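Q: Give me a backbone?
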Amino acid sequence: MASELTWLGHGSWSIASGGQQILLDPFLDDSPVAPVKADQVAADFILISHGHFDHVADAQKIALRTGATLVANFEICEWFTAKGVEKTHAMNIGGGHLFPFGRVKMTIAHHTSMLPDGANGGQPAGFLISLPEGNVYFACDTGLFYDMKLIGAAGIALASLPIGDNFTMGPDDALEAVKLLNPQRVVPVHCGTWPVIAQDPERWAQRVRAETSAEPVVLRPGEKIRL
């Protein structure tokens, strides 16, 4: 069965691939847009891009309930270990590892990463995940950076890019990111959760169609896309 990705609103994703369930940055119980709650999701692996509350909020409770392995930078893994999460896999920028569902490479991201209690969250990251059908790039929370061109050189079947502005790239910079990455398809995320990051994803998609060769896919929280 083809890998299937479900946008859970904001920066959160659920990925089903190779019989595995992967969560990315689960922010569900306190999210005003999430279509499900933390006790309703399955997980074999939980990927955490950085330490902000809207990306780690539900990771602990999900990991304790499901026994999932939490994948993040070293500092975040240590923080969750101290909170009772038994299975973690620490990585760092530029490193990759082969998991049962595919290879994960941790990429740079221009952002911050302090954890909710003020602890050091290490360096923020994005993820390049190699699934059977192709590479998926989750930029996660970041500003625009020219090295996206190098990430795109791997060949991107699907890119997930923030367009919300204020905390991350806005629509203009996200459009430039599409040009650097040259993905086959692109999904706008990290927008509409709160008024400060309200955007018009359909208008952005029109610009992507007009100015790039990528196919934009606008999802509502809970909607799926197959590779």
Helices lie at 53-56, 59-66, 74-82, 148-152, 171-181, 201-211. The radius of gyration is 16 Å. The mean pLDDT is 98.
